[in-house]
Amino acid sequence: MAKLYIVATPIGNLGDITLRAVETLKNVDLILCEDTRETKKILNKYNINKPTMSYHAQSKLAKVDKIFELLREGKDLALVSDAGTPGISDPGAMLVSQIKNNLRYSVDVIPIPGPTALIAALSASGLPTHEFTFLGFLPHKKGRETLFKEIAESKRTMVFYESPHRILKTLESLTKFCPHKKVCIAREITKIYEEFKIDTPAELLKYLTQNPVKQKGEFTVLVA
């Protein structure tokens, strides 16, 4: 039976990859990558010489058909994203669903767990972690205001990802809908400029506005 390994890779620091992940990538027949250029950095560091093929949100049906064909031939594949755990706010979730629905009797889907920004941020945030809701990436327009109202009314910690292009707008919305809540912005987790900042939304907005260099990087936002 063919195997598809869902392999978590580092979210920043390349030293965070697990021994099992390295061993898996060395032994599969092909590695499916969100961006082959990003994955090559990890493969080169750990001397992994395996063929790669791109699979991302814009991949056409023909690419999925090719993946199905390889699995039917008995090939073992690994799926990786650019960073973190495939399938978590990631196009890999769709591929796994398609395989589970169409090839469920001929393919084993095996998780190789490891880094994910969501859990890393929660563990170091200092906010309550016994209950939390993960929202992934917030919508750009439709439903965005409704979601901020939901965040404001929530009794549990809310966690979501945000891009540097929208972090100020997000903090403006949090200031509007839940001005007194404690918010943590975790930036560039595991990287050189890693930073965790906890305050009210208004103070965080002021901090980032006064320090434009701090607006760069990938953000995980947590609202207590």
From TrEMBL:
A GO CC term attached to the entry: cytoplasm
Catalytic activities: cytidine(1402) in 16S rRNA + S-adenosyl-L-methionine = 2'-O-methylcytidine(1402) in 16S rRNA + S-adenosyl-L-homocysteine + H(+)
Keywords: Cytoplasm, Methyltransferase, rRNA processing, S-adenosyl-L-methionine, Transferase
Main localisation: cytoplasm
Keyword Nucleotide-binding: no
Enzyme Commission number: 2.1.1.198
Cellular localisation: Cytoplasm
InterPro entries: 4pyrrol_Mease, 4pyrrol_Methylase_sf, 4pyrrole_Mease_sub1, 4pyrrole_Mease_sub2, rRNA_ssu_MeTfrase_I, SAM_MeTrfase_RsmI_CS
GO MF annotation terms: rRNA (cytosine-2'-O-)-methyltransferase activity
Residues in Tetrapyrrole methylase domain copies: 3-201
EC class of the enzyme, as a word: transferase
Pfam families xrefs: TP_methylase
Functional description taken from the UniProt entry: Catalyzes the 2'-O-methylation of the ribose of cytidine 1402 (C1402) in 16S rRNA.
Family recorded in the similarity comment: Belongs to the methyltransferase superfamily. RsmI family.
HAMAP family registered for this protein in UniProt: 16SrRNA_methyltr_I
Protein name: Ribosomal RNA small subunit methyltransferase I
Species: Candidatus Nomurabacteria bacterium RIFCSPLOWO2_01_FULL_39_17
Protein encoded by which gene: rsmI
